Amino acid sequence: MFYMTLLHWMVVVVFILLFLILSLLSLKEPNKKVVISMILSSFLITMLGMVIFLFVVDKYTKKGKILAYTQKRNLANETIMFTGRVQNVGNFKIGYCKIEVKLSNKVMKMGRPKDALFKPSTNLGPLFSDKKMQANTVKEEFKVVENLKPKEVKNFRIYMKYPPYMNAPGLKLTLNCH
Q1: Distances (CA, A) of 25 to 29, 30, 71, 126
Q2: Is the dihedral angle over the CA atoms 158, 162, 168, 171 positive or is it negative?
Q3: 111 backbone dihedrals φ, ψ, rounded to 5°
């Protein structure tokens, strides 16, 4: 759900007015073929500008923060569980928040530098794939909270498959709110 604030609606109104002004100015052109292309061009430019400004306004009005989280690994079924809390630190309502979890394996092992050599990837997939090559980074995205009011805090819980071949991976959580 994309929640539009008053600032979003103001951007929409400004760009609609800009399109109308540009269309009225293009009607003064005597050549009708040029008028149609001018109106179409002004429509495309104002729509592109409106979409860009809506994303910018969305980024700066909807701010969330991970207050605290814990992680627990379940060896029985090779999963990792994250529990924590997300807070809306902005002044506007947030429609939803997603957390991206990124696990990165250690690249270099002491005593075995041959594992750290560059292994090129290819788009030819299974033709040249090496069965021993494993993904060095695993990313997954989870929707954690919805309808978060200003200054409100909600709890979340995420279950993720844990790659068994990873040795002491680095962990990064990124919160994106819309």
Answers
A1: 8, 11, 60, 58
A2: negative
A3: 90, -10
> Could you tell me which of 107, 172, 169, 96 has the C-alpha nearest to residue 140?
172
pTM: 0.69
- Cβ atoms < 10 Å from Cβ of 58: 21
What class is the 64-177 domain? Answer: mainly beta
Q: What is the DSSP letter of 129?
A: -
Q: What's at 147, amino acid-wise? A: N
Burial category of 138 from C-beta neighbours within 10 Å (exposed 0-12, middle 13-18, buried 19 and up)? middle
Tens place of pLDDT for every residue, the chain, 178 residues? Answer: 467 888 999 999 999 999 999 999 999 988 888 999 999 999 999 999 999 999 999 888 889 999 999 999 888 888 999 999 999 998 889 989 999 999 888 765 555 555 445 555 556 655 555 555 667 888 999 999 999 999 999 999 999 998 888 887 888 999 999 8
Host H or E run for residue 22: helix 6-26
